[in-house]
Amino acid sequence: MEIYSEKTILVPERINNIFAPGINMIIGPNCSGKTIFLRQILLGKQIHQVSADCDPRLSKGEKYFLDVEKAISESGSSSSIILDDFGSRLTMENIAKLMEKAKEKNVQVIATVKDKDILKFADKAIFLECGQIKLMHEFNKNP
Predict the structure, then answer these.
(1) pLDDT tens digits for 40-91?
(2) Regarding beta strands 80-83 and 132-138, do their DSSP bridges make them parallel or antiparallel, or are they unpaired?
(3) Could you count the other beta carbons within 10 Å of the beta carbon of residue 48?
(4) What is the CATH number of domain 5-138?
(5) Of the candidates 121, 125, 126, 58, which has an alpha carbon nearest to the alpha carbon of residue 94?
(6) pTM of the model
(7) Do residues 122 and 23 touch, judged by C-beta distance below 8 A?
(8) Rounded distance between C-alpha atoms, residue 38 and residue 119, angstroms
(9) Tens digit of each residue's pLDDT (9 = 90 or more) over 1-16
């Protein structure tokens, strides 16, 4: 049985360096340094890898959805959820469900993504290129 919990990490504190409350997405092409960037912000932090107990016959996408859903349910409003390569195994419908649940619980999410379409769920986006921050953008979602 394969375990994908290394992609879903719960941190019992908010990470406030450059991240906003809410949904933060780090975007960049392959090999742009997104995962290394996540590892650097987690140095010295207490972390909890999350893996849902489920049927091993589930697809990778179904398993990942359950892992993220479990992380959200176990988190509090002062927690952060770290999601590496978020969205690669999920439909837009499932991404929307998870992000809505995270917003309802007021959980800080920090996710690396490759697909620009996922940015519509973000409160803040950080664009990486060759390991360097090229642009940070906060989305004003108030009417």
Answers:
(1) 888 888 888 888 888 888 888 899 899 999 999 988 888 899 999 898 889 9
(2) unpaired
(3) 14
(4) 3.40.50.300
(5) 121
(6) 0.85
(7) yes
(8) 18
(9) 233 345 778 887 888 7
